[in-house]
Each structure stands twice: as C-alpha cells, then as structure tokens.
Specification:
Strand order of the largest sheet: 1-5-6-11-10-9-7-8
Number of helices: 16
Helix content: 40-55%
C-alpha cells in the first residue's frame, strides 16, 4: 500500500507535465488578455462555507465532501469546488469596496469523494474565472467567450455550447411547485436522494444521474416557461450577446448545474468524446451567492473547467501539444581538473539562460555520451586536459553527429544561437 497512490488520485509524472504546463499557460494567457487577475485560496475551508455556498441539497455537500475535525474541534473541508473560496476571499479582503467589477481567475486542486472514472478523480484540478459586481449580461457573454476562445485555441473541435436560464428565487418558487406536481405521482419510484430533493429542491431531480429518474425528468416542465420578466429579458440579452460574438449555442432547458447557487444563466460545453461524463466546462450566474456567504448583495458570474477531463479530451480528439523542451548541453568531463572546470562552466552557462547539466553518476565518456543522447540533449560539451590547455572544448552536435572546437569564451554565445 505504501507504493500505491490513494484511489482516485494520480501522479503527474515528468513525461506528462509538459502537457499540463501547456494548457495552464494557455489558460493564464487567455485570462490575462481578458483583464482577469489571478487568485489563490487555501486548499481547505470551514465546512459551513460550502454548506451555505454550494447548497445542502447538492450531491457535493450530501455525499462527496472530504470533511474532518481538526485539533481545535473545528469542522474543516477540503475544497470541492473553486467559487465559494474565491467569494470568501473577496469578502474577507473587502475587495467590494474597490472599483468594480472584480475579475479573478484560478488554477486549483479540488476534492470530491465519488467513484473514479475517466476524467473524474477524487483529487482533481480545476481552472475557473469569476466576475463580481455586475448583473449585466455582458459579463456572462465574456466568461462564455473566454471559455470558447480557450478551448478552440487548444484545437478542440466538436464541442457544443448549451445554455439555459435557471431563473431567480422569485420565478423558481412557481417552477418548483410545477415540478412537484409533475413528480408527485412518480414519487415512490424515485431514488432515495431524489425523494429527499422532492421537498427541499425538486430542480435537483432534473440533474439526477439515475437512469430511471433521468428518463422521467425529460418530460418535466421547462423552467423557460416560468421565467419572470427580468429573467426572461436577461436570457434574451445573453442570446443576443452570444449571437453578436459569433458563438453558436443550443438552448437546453434540462441544464440546471449541480450547485444550488446558480441564478439566471447556466451553461455547459459538452462533448461525446469522453463517455457519459461529457461536460468539459460549466458555469453560470450566481447573483445571491455572495449575499448568502456574507452580507454584501453583489452579483457574480463564472465557470469551472476540469483539467484532467480537458487533457483527456485533447488526447482523444488528436489535439496537438508542443514538443517538450529539451536540454541544451551536457558537460562531459575527463579528469579531476576538467570536472572542476565543468562545475564552474555549468553555472556560467545557466546564468546566461542556457539549460545544461553534468553527469552526476560520473560515468566514463562513452556512458556520458550515451546518456546525453538518450535524454535528448542537443549538444555534448567535452572537456579534458587537452581542452583545458587549449582553452577550447569539443562541442558535439548530437542531432547532426558533427563536432567542432569552440573556445570557452564563445561557448555561451554559440549555444545561444
């Protein structure tokens, strides 16, 4: 057991990390271009934050959170999602007193206890963006546009954007009664979780993963028929903004998202390439979340995007990744004096921005050359007594199998070219 990672976790090994760096840097660049600033929040929070923010009727709170008591008898939870901690940080730092809107992005680890499957782990990593301080649909269009641009620039194709409005507390009250009227004759056939949801939040039944309940929910009333005037106008504004952006979408009334805090806009980018769990990116508006967590009545909108699922999709659809960066040179030394000079030379080349190393296994020359070739070094810098005397090293091009003498003084400039 000591050499097995806990179920639902996965090591990110050096041969995979270049892909992670690529998508992380791409996401960061896209966010910075859109005027977002990076935020980092703790890996654990007080449990009450997620009960109030995420919602006690959600699967996350009811079944999936990693919750424990610390040595001070405080209930602590490893964060299962990124938005609530960002809201807490926004309130605690009083950023609402600054000029609005506030625009954050993050890259964080999250934890949920659920059955591991392709693209869904118990420890997973999530990109996210949040805009606080405006109820304009321009903000909703921007976060959707950012996600669309990011996914397309990674070369991902055949994605569908599905949008819906989940209304506000005012129009949802009438809609929930309509749902109860619809599901009441079928109540005994619902799963135990949905029986509990029936009174507390029947909208969650639409999101149930049980095949029977999911099939039944397809005939349920549509939220779009119950929207109040304000929510209906907001949804029209959203569609007009997406049309103006040239972003194609499908209106899907079954999208309610898995978190209780959403209001008005709900959206998902969906694919059929990674099995049943096809949502790659999901988000929406949450105008009551900040008030629920703190005392400030401030609207917000954002999205979350699972990195493991994103990489799985890229690999399945043949999206290209940049070649991993290789080392510039391995310094090969023969003799004690050459070894000392090699130690100095390695630091000198690194100070000039070059990637170089020495063989710390102290193999013979043949072994060092074999190692350099296997690890993908471009050059071998060979130093022995003759080279020290002449002031020139032997520079072997491992790609083209050529060799020439280069003075130590000119070596950094030569490699830099």
């Amino acid at each position: 057991m000591l050499t097995n990672a806990p179920r639902g976790t996965k090591d990110i090994l050096p041969q995979e990390i270049s892909k992670w760096n690529y998508v992380e840097n791409s996401f960061r660049n896209e966010c910075l271009k859109n005027g977002f600033s990076e935020i980092r929040t703790p890996i654990f929070e007080h449990t009450e934050l997620f009960k109030r923010g995420v919602g006690e009727t959600t699967d996350i709170v009811q079944k999936e959170m990693y919750t424990f008591e610390d040595h001070g008898n405080r209930s602590i939870t490893l964060k299962p999602e990124g938005t609530a901690p960002v809201v807490r940080a926004f309130l605690e730092s009083k950023q609402y007193a600054e000029t609005q809107p506030t625009k954050y992005f993050y890259n964080t680890s999250c934890y949920r206890y659920e059955k591991p499957q392709a693209g869904r782990l118990r420890e997973f990593h999530q990109f996210g963006v949040e805009i606080f301080g405006t109820d304009s649909m321009l903000a909703d269009v921007q976060v959707i546009s950012l996600a669309d641009d990011f996914l397309k620039k990674l070369g991902i194709k055949d994605l569908e954007l599905r949008i819906n409005s989940v209304g506000c507390p005012k129009c949802r009250a009438e809609y929930k009664e309509a749902l109860r009227d619809y599901f009441r004759p079928h109540l005994n056939g619902l799963c135990d979780t949905c029986k509990d949801r029936f009174e507390r939040n029947p909208m969650r039944i639409i999101d149930c993963k049980s095949p029977h309940d999911h099939e039944l929910a397809l005939g349920a009333p549509s939220i779009l028929d119950y929207l109040c005037e304000e929510c209906s106008e907001a949804f029209d504004d959203l569609k007009e903004g997406l049309d103006a952006s040239g972003i194609e979408y499908i209106v899907d009334p079954t999208i309610v998202r898995g978190l209780d805090y959403y209001t008005k806009t709900a959206f998902e980018f969906v694919t059929n390439e990674i099995g049943a769990q096809g949502t790659v990116c999901g988000g929406g508006r949450y105008d009551n979340l900040i008030k629920e967590i703190g005392d400030q009545d401030i609207p917000g909108v954002g999205f979350g995007l699972g990195i493991e699922r994103l990489l799985l999709l890229m690999e399945k659809t043949g999206a290209s990744f940049p070649e991993p960066e290789t080392m510039d040179a391995l310094i090969i030394t023969l003799g004690d004096d050459a070894k000392k000079h090699g130690i100095w030379l390695a630091r000198e080349l690194r100070s000039k921005g070059l990637k170089c190393d020495m063989d710390v296994m102290e193999r013979n020359m043949k072994g060092q050359l074999k190692y350099a070739d296997k690890k993908g070094y471009r050059y071998a810098v060979i130093i022995g007594d003759n080279e020290l005397a002449s002031g020139k090293c032997q520079l072997k091009d491992l790609k083209n199998s050529t060799q020439e003498d280069v003075s130590f003084d000119d070596l950094a400039e030569y490699l830099g070219k």
